[in-house]
Amino acid sequence: MKILLIEDDEQIADLVASAFEAVGIQTQLEKDGFRGLRTALQLNFDAILLDVALPLMDGFQVLEEIRRNNLNTPVIMLTASIDLPDRLKSFEKGADDYLPKPFYMEELIVRVKAMINNKRGKVEMTLVQGDLSLDRFTRVATWQGEKATLTQREYVLLECLMTSPGQIFSREQILKQVWNVDFDPGTNVVDVSVQRLRKKLSSPSPELGIAFPIETIRGVGYRFKTQS
């Protein structure tokens, strides 16, 4: 699982990220409303934690744009306000939940997990694309009957590609979503990770001619090739 946290308070952001990491949920942070909105629209997340008082665009504006773009990712609003009008405004603009600060991390985690489970349903806990399936909880991938347990990075990389079949991801986009890196580190870490993933899930019967569906787009990046 991966969530987007849009929060400009570094102390709160660090606490939230650490709490979710401890339960195996990856967190990507954006510190202003503009960048938060851009990331929400460009990448895939299981949930969004959205502060109200943000630089450049406030949380209500971000939420409004998220819903205007038909993005149905669950959103929890985080705010210091406990006023009823603010709560009502959040729900009117499309929030799924509202949690006033300060809050208990345990409560936030429970709310996020419940919200994600309610949206997905039990069937979606396993991603399936053609002959490939990915268990979101155990990080076990199954390709043509062969099972492999993935590392956290391998899991996030494969999930990123599988949830958007046919979409081309640049290496920069993959670095952002999988490694939370905003710049080119000057290494081939993306290419190496894709090769490791392919090797780990290589077909036990290559003579069948069924290629592992992560396709290299030369000079651009990678995509998950849809299987007919």
Give a concise summary:
This protein is α/β, with parallel strands linked by helices and 228 residues long. It has helices spanning 10-22, 33-42, 59-68, 84-92, 105-120, 152-162, 171-179, 189-200; strands at 2-6, 26-30, 47-51, 75-79, 97-100, 126-129, 132-135, 140-143, 146-149, 168-170, 214-217, 221-224. Strand 3 (47-51), helix 3 (59-68) and strand 4 form a beta-alpha-beta unit.
Keywords:
5-stranded parallel beta sheet; 8 helices; 2 domains; 228 residues; Rossmann fold; 4-stranded antiparallel beta sheet; alpha/beta
Structural topology:
Blueprint: E1 2-6, H1 10-22, E2 26-30, H2 33-42, E3 47-51, H3 59-68, E4 75-79, H4 84-92, E5 97-100, H5 105-120, E6 126-129, E7 132-135, E8 140-143, E9 146-149, H6 152-162, E10 168-170, H7 171-179, H8 189-200, E11 214-217, E12 221-224
Parallel strand pairs: 1-2, 1-3, 3-4, 4-5
Antiparallel strand pairs: 6-7, 7-8, 8-9, 10-12, 11-12
| Biggest sheet architecture | 5 strands, parallel
Please tell me the CATH architecture of the largest domain by its name. 3-Layer(aba) Sandwich
CATH H-level name of the largest domain... which superfamily?
Response regulator
Low-confidence stretches: none
- Order of strands, widest sheet: 2-1-3-4-5
Shape: globular
Mean pLDDT: 85
Give, in order, the helices and strands. EHEHEHEHEHEEEEHEHHEE
DSSP helical segment count: 8
Strand content: 15-25%
- Could you tell me the number of beta strands? 12
CATH topology of the largest domain: Rossmann fold
Distance between the termini: 27 Å
Estimate percent helicity.
25-40%
| CATH first level of the largest domain | Alpha Beta
Could you say which structural class the secondary elements and strand pairing correspond to? alpha/beta
Query: What is the gyration radius calculated from CA atoms?
Result: 19 Å
What is the domain total for the residues? 2
